[in-house]
Every structure is written in C-alpha cells, then in structure tokens.
Design a protein that fits this description.
single chain; 13% strand; 471 residues; alpha/beta; disordered C terminus
Length: 471
C-alpha cells in the first residue's frame, strides 16, 4: 500500500467478493457493514495519497465477535434477548483497531452469550466449518474463525472463557490466541464469566496474531485488571525469541483423546524436540478441569445474566406484574443452554448448597493454579492437543450437554489459571485440521507465540520436503 501497488479500497473489495461468494453457505456473520468499511478504506487511501503515517493495521479487514461492542452496529450476543440492541460506544479493543487504521467489516456469529463449544447455539444461524460444511466450527467464537479461515477477513477478534478462541481455531485450521488474563481490556465485552473472560485474535499465521496483540493489549483505566500492563512489540519479540525452550507434556493431556488426534500432536511435539527440550511433567489435578471450570463459570454467569430482565436491558416485556414480566421475557428470549447455565449457577450459589459446591470449586481452582505454577518452575511452556476429538458433525452432540462440556477438557485449564495459551495448526487427520496448544507462564505471551511460530516453520519445511519428494 505504501508503494502504491495496492489500495485499501481495492483490498476491501476483494474481501467483499469473497463474502458475497461464501457467506451464504458458511454463516460467519450476523451483521455486515460494507458502507462503513468502504468509508474507512477511503480514509486510509487518502492518508496514503497525502503520505501521512499509516497505522499498524492499515487496510487489513477485521471481523469482530458479536459480543464485543462496535458503535452503531448491533451487539446481539447471538441472542433474541438483545436482537434489537445497537451498541452506543466502542469497546476499547475496537477503539485501538480503528486508531491503527483497521477496517471493521462486521460482527460474527457465536454460541448465544458465548455458551457453547460448536457455534450451533446461536439464536439466528449455525456457522459451518469451511473445511467440511457438514461439521461444526467449534465455539463459541466460531464465526470469527470461519471469517479468517475462508478468507472473508484478514484478522478477527473473539472472546475466550474456556477455549472459545482456541477450539474454533483448531477445528477451522487457523491461529487463535488467548492472552494472559488482564493483558487486554474487556471494556465493551458482554461478559460470560469475568474472572475467566479474555479477548484475543484469530489470524492465518502467528505473525498476524502477534500484530493484533500489539494493538489491542495494554492498560485501560476502564478495566482495572489491566492496571500495570505494559505495551509490547510482539512482532519484534516473535523474531527475537529464538532461544531453546523447555516444553512440558503431561500424560493427563492425552487421556480420553481420539487416537488420531493424539498421534498427530505427539508427532509435532517430537519434531519440536529438534529445536527445544521436551520434558514430561505430572499435572494430576488437570483431570478435574471440566467440573472446576464449569461450576465456577455457571456461578458467575448466573450473576451476570441478572441484568437481562426486560426492564433496563434486553427485550421488551408486556405490562405484567414484575415477577411474571421478568419470567416471561427471559423464557421467551433465552435459549436452552443459556437457561441451563443460569439455573445451575443459581442452584450451586444458594445458601443451602454453596459450601457443598461453589466454595469447594473455588478451593479446587486455587489448587490447580498452584499445580501449574509448580510445573512452570520446571518448563517454559506446556504443549497439548487443543481438543480431544476432531470436529463433529452438526447436531451430533446437541442432545448430550455433558459431551459438549467434555470437548473443553484441554482448554479450560488456561482460563482457570489465567495463563496465556495459543493454538496453531499441527497437521491434518484426513482433510480435517488438528491444532496443537501451547500454554505459558503469566505474562510470557511472547514465548507461547514463539513456539507456535516454530510449529509453522516445521510444517512449512515438511510441505517443502513432500513437494521435493513428489518432484
């Protein structure tokens, strides 16, 4: 663009054509803003013409998960409760993207209020995996993963509460990154569970994730957990972090994994041994990640959802008495999985049952954090599969919520502990992509990104070798 070889407007129109060709089949978006995107692209082209300084994201087309506020666009969280809600302000991450000349193309589909693992729980549409349209995308940020994987956007934002970025990244064959808790402001994010939630990027490669991380991370006075966070040059650190790393693997990460997933991930970890040191570490409490995670999340979610009562927030209610009105509007507008989580969260925090359930799970969360802290005294990173299975067919797990929850077994630990975690494509099982996950110490996000880049380089080398052998 700086050399005049292409324009922001021209690049946007290329993406627009891809959207027109593919969106009808893949259902990545809930809202598209071609007019606003074209206006922004025109402003960038004018900057180029006048030789003004360009932002880090100049001309890149970016999709935003529809639980993150973009001023003037709907923010529905894929729920009928917020079907007519239009955001009156920008989330901090959106402000930063616009300041760096990113072009926001629209809002992407998700599981309703981010409650789900496959992006089939949206009130409006089911997103489809671009690799195999009969299969799920992973969730809850499925629409953002699809937008990047299919070429409808250069980059995208999702939110990750227990794997909602990393699961769809693995299933769709793209890069997904969950930063250290508190590294990225959540101001303007519709929360699921605020002690777990973190906004992060999707991209085609690790460089794209590092670039978007540079833009969206940093201290924000409107989100107190970001206090003390320093801006970092992640793209430079990505190239600079070349030293040999100690990478830990735990047998617990492979318990219950499909054999083909286990094989692919172990093969890529073995190849990483050419560059880095691979060590075995015990993590027995990680076996309990699903109950620890979901009981905590249910409690926080039921509390967060109290504001959606049809009075100040949410859908319109009839002129009934207060109790009937709130019950009517919530019953009419909330989906099955959202109701299930509200009811379970309410139950485990009731006075009669709190000590038996919620108090115990808080203690278990603390034990898991200590166990991971001890592991990171021995290693720089932990490596694991992202999901225990390949993407399943749409509708296959709808009748068994427990099976859906178990899909998050390997991703929830990072959110429980507040550590950074990223996913990059390791290889394919048949035509389906499989992602390898790396987790790092709190604040050492650049090491996670460096390991992800190592996988990309090894995968590129293997493809070159295969090409040469065929030649």
């Amino acid at each position: 663009m700086r050399k005049g070889e292409c324009s922001a407007s021209g690049h946007l129109e290329e993406k627009t054509k891809v959207i027109e060709q593919k969106e009808g089949q893949l259902n990545a978006f809930l809202h598209l803003d071609f007019e606003g995107a074209r206006k922004k692209a025109g402003e960038i082209d004018e900057k180029i013409r006048k030789k003004k300084k360009l932002g880090k994201l100049a001309g890149l087309v970016i999709a935003i998960k529809d639980n993150i506020c973009v001023e003037g666009m709907p923010c529905t969280a894929a729920s009928k409760m917020l079907e007519n809600y239009v955001a009156p302000y920008n989330a901090t991450v959106v402000e930063k993207i616009l300041q760096e000349d990113g072009i926001i193309i629209g809002k992407t589909n998700l599981d309703e209020f981010a409650c789900g693992s496959d992006c089939t729980k949206s009130a409006f549409k089911i997103s489809r995996n671009p690799v195999d349209t009969e299969r799920v995308t992973g969730g809850s940020s499925g629409g953002s993963a699809v937008a990047v994987a299919s070429g409808m956007a250069d980059l995208a934002l999702g939110s990750d509460t227990g794997g909602s970025i990393r699961c769809p990244a693995s299933f769709c064959g793209v890069v997904g990154f969950k930063p250290t808790y508190g590294l990225v402001s959540r101001y303007g994010l519709l929360d699921l569970a605020m002690s777990f939630d973190q906004i992060g990027p999707f991209s085609k490669d690790t460089y794209g994730a590092a670039l978007l991380m540079e833009v969206i991370s940093g201290e924000d006075p409107r989100d107190s957990v970001t206090k003390g966070t320093k801006d970092r040059d992640y793209t430079r650190l990505l190239d600079k972090t070349k030293k040999k790393l100690k990478i830990g693997i735990a047998k617990e990460f492979f318990e219950g994994c499909d054999k083909e997933v286990e094989k692919v991930v172990k093969e890529i970890i073995e190849k990483l041994g050419e560059r880095h040191e691979i060590l075995e570490v015990p993590l027995p409490i990680s076996r309990y990640s699903v109950p620890i995670y979901f009981l905590n999340v249910f409690a926080e979610f039921s509390s967060a959802m109290q504001k959606y009562d049809g009075l100040k927030y949410g859908a319109f209610w009839e002129e009934l008495n207060l109790v009937d009105a709130v019950s009517e509007v919530r019953d009419r507008t909330l989906g099955k999985e959202v109701k299930r989580r509200i009811l379970l969260g309410t139950y485990i925090t009731m006075k009669e049952f709190k000590d038996a359930w919620y108090t115990k799970t808080l203690k278990a969360r603390d034990l898991m954090r200590k166990e991971f802290d001890n592991a990171f005294k021995k290693v720089d990173l932990l490596a694991s599969p992202t999901n225990p299975s390949l993407p399943w067919k749409i509708g296959e797990k709808n009748e068994d919520p427990v099976q859906m929850y178990l899909a998050d077994t390997l991703t929830t630990t990072a959110n429980i502990c507040g550590i950074p975690a990223g996913v990059v494509k390791a290889a394919f099982c048949g035509k389906l992509p499989v992602g390898v996950q790396f987790m790092g110490r709190i604040g050492e996000d650049e090491k996670v990104l460096a390991a992800m880049k190592s996988v990309e380089e090894l995968a590129g080398r293997d493809m070159d070798d295969e090409h040469n052998n065929r030649s």
